[in-house]
Design goal:
The structure holds two protein chains of two kinds. Chain A is mainly β. Chain A is 0% helix and 58% strand. Chain B is mainly β. Classes of the chains: A mainly beta, B mainly beta.
């Protein structure tokens, strides 16, 4: 069984401030973990993924995430928010064996203030 | 094509009517997924195709929902006798789905926004 919890349905930051979006997962086997971004009226776009190589994963648009097994977390960060980062962000988990079906979190809406 | 395409982009229908939603995956992708995204909710898995067969259709919410895939390519999601609670964005994704390839990445289409009046 696998599940994902994204803490906070909305996160508000000022332009230039640190972005931190939280994701905790539950998986009975070592997981693969993903972050996706969804801009208004668009589909989901992959930001980054953890595949059991480096625990610190760098993605597109300056985002990165760190896999912490002891905390079962995969939080997404960006040092300095841009207005263009305003979007919905989804964390997803997939087991390393068997099904290809990932489980998605409910999403976190990132609001960036000028 | 260059990406996953879906049609129509928007569909407004009356309660009780049938609708068909189409997904055209990336060429060469053997796996295809349908999700439903309701307002304020995450992505709800509906069905997964590997080639033309559906190994996992556990997410279909009722027997009013069905899907097929032909030629290992285009897929159609059909909702019969639509209800207002069917209103949502229906997303399609495809992936290479290499067996044992755990890093398989899903590529999403822009979705079809369904509104049932």
């Amino acid at each position: 069984a696998q599940s994902v919890t994204q803490l906070g349905s909305h996160v508000s930051v000022s332009e230039g401030a640190l972005v931190l979006l939280r994701c905790n997962y539950s998986s009975s086997v070592p997981p693969y973990l993903f972050w996706y971004v969804q801009y208004p009226n668009q589909g989901l776009q992959l930001l980054l993924k953890y595949t059991s190589a480096a625990t610190l994963v760098k993605g597109i648009n300056g985002f990165e995430a760190e896999f912490k097994k002891s905390e079962t977390s995969f939080h997404l960060t960006k040092p300095s928010a841009h207005m263009s980062d305003a979007a919905e962000y989804f964390c997803a988990v997939r087991s390393t064996g068997g099904s290809y079906i990932p489980t998605f979190g409910r999403g976190t809406s990132l609001i960036v203030h000028p | 094509g260059a990406g996953v395409s879906q049609s129509p982009s928007n569909k407004v229908t009356e309660k009780g009517k049938d609708v068909e939603l189409r997904c055209d995956p990336i060429s060469g992708h053997t796996a295809l997924y349908w999700y439903r995204q309701s307002l304020g909710q995450g992505l709800e898995f509906l069905i997964y195709f590997q080639g033309n067969s559906a190994p996992d259709k556990s997410g279909l919410p009722s027997d009013r929902f069905s899907a097929e895939r032909t030629g290992g390519s285009v897929s159609t999601l059909t909702i019969q006798r639509t209800q207002q609670e069917d209103s949502a964005v229906y997303l399609c994704a495809s992936s290479l789905a290499h067996p044992g390839g755990g890093t398989d990445t899903q590529y999403f289409g822009p979705g079809t926004r369904l509104t049932v009046l």
